[in-house]
Amino acid sequence: MFWVGSGSGPLSSDRAGSAGAAVTLVPMPYLDHAATTPIHPRAAEVLAAHLGVTGNASSLHASGRRARRVVEESREAIAAAVGARPSEVVFTSGGTESDNLAVKGLYWARRAADPRRVRVLASAVEHHAVMDSAEWLAANDGAQITWLPVDATGRVDPATLRQMLAEAADEVALVSVMWANNEVGTVQPVAELADIAHEYGVPLHTDAVQAVGQLPVDFAVSGVDAMTVTGHKLGGPIGAGVLLLGREVDCVPVLHGGGQERDVRSGTLDVPAVAALAAAAEVAVKDQPVRAERLRALRDDLVARVRTAVPEAMLNGDDSLDPSRRLPGNAHFSFAGCEGDALLMLLDARGIECSTGSACSAGVARPSHVLLAMGQDEARARASLRFTLGHTSEAADVDALVDAIGPVVERARAAAGMEPAVR
Amino acid sequence: MKVLAAMSGGVDSAVAAARAVDAGHDVTGVHLALSTSPASHRDGARGCCSLEDARDARRAADVLGIPFYVWDVAERFGHDVVDDFVAEYAAGRTPNPCVRCNERIKFAAVLDRAIALGFDAVCTGHYARVVDGDLHRAVDPRKDQSYVLAVLRPDQVARALFPLGDSRKDVVREEAAGRGLAVADKPDSHDICFIADGDTRGWLQQRLGRQPGVFVDAVSGEPVGAHDGAYSFTVGQRRGLRLGRPAADGKPRYVLDVEPVSGTVTVGPEEMLAVTTVVTGRPTWCGPAPELPAALGVQLRAHGEELVGVVEGDHAALTVTFGDQRPRGIAPGQTAAFYDGTRVVGSATINATRA
Q1: Disulfide engineering: A205 pairs with which of A102, B99, B170, B202, CB 3.0-4.6 Å?
Q2: Taking CB atoms and an 8 Å cutoff, what residues of chain B touch A421?
Q3: Using the beta-carbon criterion (under 8 Å), do B112 and A346 form an inter-chain contact?
């Protein structure tokens, strides 16, 4: 057992992947893989191996060429892993940047081509990186947003998108609908939505941050025009991501400078991170079918046993648990009469790490916009807790949660009568 | 003990939490988010509810190696402290929001929740002491905050931990620096935490609007000026009256009384501020209820001097009569805190005064 720093839980060394100088420490039980998943030992090894190597991938000399070669091999590996062409891979700093670039960049490009195109259609359950980018365009740059409603499971109805496009397609700059929701794990019919958008000549962006490595994801087959991917949700390093951008898709840059990435994204490339991201993506995609099956079984066990321990627990999201409809590693509950932050704290004190699903700047949990969009009331939204599994998850993690959840819910419920936040 | 340390982001609560850790307690830090729309940074010496303060509290918890969370008490604070503050001023009274916050938030909502979640006590950076189960003044008279804690009941005192009560402020700052707490040189907070710029009158005006009224001279009975809202004035106030006519004797005039319904603010000479008697509402006793009548130490404002008064009454109301040493400028709404030596006996809210 390791104890690292203060206030953090025990870290299990038996699951620590040792790779050269890099050691990955996985807290246990860690049930928050949707926030970030431990770096894969192979990716940590690649990262460490490149950290000491000098070279700007834009330099013309031998060191530069060496760095450029690493970048381009990584680009090809990532493209192969997600069904894209290498030229469609734009390296970024991660999901937030990719979402900003897609939403703002497509909006600006489409509006420049036709000033009538000022409408952004996005699902009501998008990540804040998409929502707030759209809101910023609305507040500062003339955009009009239409939030696509979702059903009680959090899914967009393709007929709704069709109807909205039929009304005013020539005013629409882009559609943005995530591949799978980060809170409740609901999988969207992205390919179908992309087909509909294309019927009306409108590009579609999808935030696939939670999907790659969890579900089969193929950029070309999906037909989407832009796709956000980030490293740290699939076993890569934090701070490295990709925007997959179709070759014919015009996009105005957000970051200006040297134009390193297709003139769409500037900034010196982080060669070690790019290489590690590629290593992680290769492993994540290669292992995806087996891992998804394993995680699904673990998750189903978790859901069943939490429901036994706390019969009133309500599963949020798609309760078919079918991997085509729900992320295999996602379980999301509301525990009526409890406050999510109290549950989280009580579990944390027992070394069990999970999430209330939505955080905010001061660390104050607000009721999730995703659950509210699914038609739940504030009390149920505040009573929610997300458990997400990933590549290091084991049955012992589920056992620990199942042992703790009953007493924790009971205690949190006793405290809820005195809840300071809600009146 | 399992201790919940309320951490404002200031130096006092950080050192208090550190001492609780040193004492061997199992400490968890909690920052209370009091505002629904916190400012991103702190402005001078005011407030404790900016995001910067939350971050400072988190950093202190990191240094101490304790778990840390933010609890959202904004709604409850808004209702029980901020709305109450506005309503009290609107009623011509002068509230003390820190007393209200201790009474209804820190040692009520937060303490109750902490106990329910399995904690044994709440620790704060207040300068006060608990000795043999009794609440006492701090040893540093300039920092003593027992006045704002005199609203605690015995069961709340029993669950409270005040590790700073034996220390002087400069010692606490040195200790913070020695412990590597970055908040060591942060300015002390004062004023009212939810009025960021310190302009209480302007803040109240935004919420209560313009309510024109007149100043009346208590000696002559004549109107001597006009104002935009009686709530802007508090008994004992001298500055900012902007009276149209000077007093006959040329001496400064003070606010003697605020009558919100008619909007009349009565002003008069300094000697008319003195009161012989204050009448309060229901008292809260920090320990066993005292035998009344009793001669007790009486403090009528934060950092005010302690006078001797004879306290009479029962569980519903008290009358406090002062001897030769009479308090001045006492407003309804203020808290009267009672002392027996350094021991805090209890407190009550002043409803009326008699000259």
Answers
A1: A102
A2: 71-76
A3: no
Question: Domain A47-282 class?
Answer: alpha beta
Tokens in use for B42?
């702190």
CB-based contacts of A380: which residues, under 8 Å, 6+ apart? A314, A334, A336, A371
Q: How many CB atoms lie within 10 A of CB B208?
A: 18
How many helices (H) does chain B have, and how many strands (E)?
10, 18
Cβ atoms of A30 and A353 within 8 Å: the answer is yes
Tell me, what amino acid is at B313? G
Task: Confirm or reject CATH 3.30.750.24 for domain A2-20+26-37+288-416, answering yes or no.
Answer: no
* Domains of chain B, CATH where assigned: 2-125+163-185 (3.40.50.620), 210-272 (2.30.30), 277-354 (2.40.30.10)
CA distance B194 to chain A (A): 17
> How many angstroms separate the CA atoms of A194 and A204, rounded?
6
Q: Can A360 be counted among the known catalytic residues?
A: yes
Structure tokens at A62: 């031998």
Q: How far apart are CA B1 and CA B87, in angstroms?
A: 39
This prediction's pTM: 0.88
Residue positions of B annotated with a catalytic role: 101, 193
Q: What is the ipTM metric for this complex?
A: 0.83
pLDDT at B47 over 60: no
pLDDT in tens, B48-86: 557 788 899 999 999 999 999 999 898 899 999 999 999
Q: DSSP letter for A141, please.
A: S
Q: B200, B217 in Cβ contact below 8 A?
A: no
Smallest CA–CA distance from B77 into chain A, residue: A420
The DSSP code sequence of B208-231 is H----EEEEETTT--EEEEES-GG
Q: Is the fold of A2-20+26-37+288-416 the same as that of A47-282?
A: no
